[in-house]
Amino acid sequence: MNMNRKKKWIIVVVAAMLCGAGTYYYIHNKSKPVAAATGQQSAMKVTKGAISSSISGTSQLDAKDKQNIVIPVDAIIKTMNLTQNQAVKKGDVLVELSVPSTETNLKEAQVTQQQLEKELAELQGEQNHMTISASMSGKLTLASNLDVGSQVNKTTKIGTISDTSQFKVKLAFPLQEAVQLQNGENVELTVDGYLLSKIGTVSSVSHEMKADTNGNKIVDVEVLVTNDGTLSAGMKVKGTIGSGDSKIESTELVALDYVRTTPIFSEASGTVKSLKFKDGETVKQGDLIATLFNDDLQQNIISKQAAIDSQKIKVDDAQQKVNQLTITAPFDGVFSADFANSKSNVLRNYPVGAQITANTTLGAVASLSTMQLAIAVDELDLTSVKVGQKAVVKVDAISGKSFEGEVTSVSNVGTTTNGVTTYDAVVSIPNPDSVLKYAMTATAEIYIQDKKDILVVPIQAITTTKGKSTVSLKKADGTVEEQHEIKTGIRSKTQVEILSGLAEGDEVVMPTRKATTTNAQMPGGFPGGEGGPPAGFQRGEGGFQGGGGARP
After folding, report:
1. How far apart are CA 165 and CA 266, in angstroms?
2. 3-state helix, strand, coil in the chain (%, to 5)
3. Can you name the CATH fold of 131-163+261-293?
4. Beta carbons of 407 and 354 less than 8 angstroms apart
5. Which of 318, 375, 395, 432 is most buried (CB neighbours < 10 A)?
6. pLDDT tens track for 197-231
7. Whole-number Å distance between alpha carbons of 276 and 132
8. Beta 86-88 vs 62-70: how paired, if at all?
9. Architecture (CATH level 2) of domain 166-258
10. In the beta sheet, which residues pair with residue 404?
């Protein structure tokens, strides 16, 4: 019984000692900074320096401009101008194909379009002839069956206009006298039934001799006479040449006739709407003679134009199909069949006259003057990459040399692999000497930002948790302030810019790769002053053992 009580008291006393020791240790160390560690950590001073922030990636070089040469349709090889590793100029004919049905379809479509356009022109011509005007001045003679309401077509004769300013007449004279006449000689004309005579002039003498009723040889002489307003067509006249006793008259009376008469045609289909002059009236050149109307003409023009527009589409479609039978170089560059098959030259399979199927790839034309490298950019860095940023490119196969490049595009479509999303940024690299080759492995470093004369610390000195960056700051008295908050700027692979929280010359503690713990055995009992906790408790660098201000 007494033994049990004694054991209980021992347990109570030990428990009390433990609690007291823990409380003492906590209170004693709570407000004290941690002493600078030795052997486990090193201190680095905050200095001024420069940081170039960059993003890098590795990929294979590709030609910036590259286009496959692909056969568009099943065809026959008409001409083949391609050879392996051939330099080409933009527009050079590389391959000509033949598809007879395609070429025939184009010709037929073009003929149909031409016919429709001809028909439209005729309809538009008719529309322009809905009014009929005098083509010259003279006497109007209307067709006998023409009146308002009459139906006419493009070949209907409306009438004639005769020039009344001059008349002509053919008079027969004895051969002997007639052959002596010269053009321009005067001939006196006497009008039958009128006390009227006019002077005409010889315009021509016929070379054909004929005989009159008495068997005398005669020749026709054409005489022109100007109309002073007293003459009209149909008047009969006789002519007299010579004077005095040597006067010779023509053998018979002959009617005056118009020198010039012009027919008038409607040149359009329709109905006579109005007649502006009566038969026999005199008109002047340009006078409106008649008007027509045709209610269907305008609609016919619209329909014909629609048919032409539709046919043009068919012609364009047929022309495009014919055009694609001629394959040309898209730009200056080099053609290579290796893009189709690097193990064998596919061109050997397609001589002139050979059949070739659609979608057959013969190779590609590539312009090697500018190469490009597509590198993957992490989604977290995407906003930092911009078109126009400079880059340095190094090629595995070309040691000791770097090439300047520039970001020319940044993709908006990402690719997710194992939960990480990346976006392609394309870097273009000038290649004037063609040193860079297709598919070479290269690494591009895109420079995001470049700052000089800024505060920097090693990147390993910074801890970032929930968006807050801290360092372990070594104070002047040798103690270390854990989790000293700072603000950071740009960073490189080794350094970080300090925006606030540190000054030049401050020292930050660098953690070692592997932390170790050095325990110190505290003296037993409860010494006065600043003695340690009871025996059995240890002082350490982390957790309950103390250090960094951690609570038990």
Report:
1. 26
2. 20, 45, 35
3. OB fold (Dihydrolipoamide Acetyltransferase, E2P) (2.40.50)
4. no
5. 375
6. 999 999 999 989 998 888 889 999 999 999 999 99
7. 10
8. unpaired
9. Beta Barrel (2.40)
10. 392
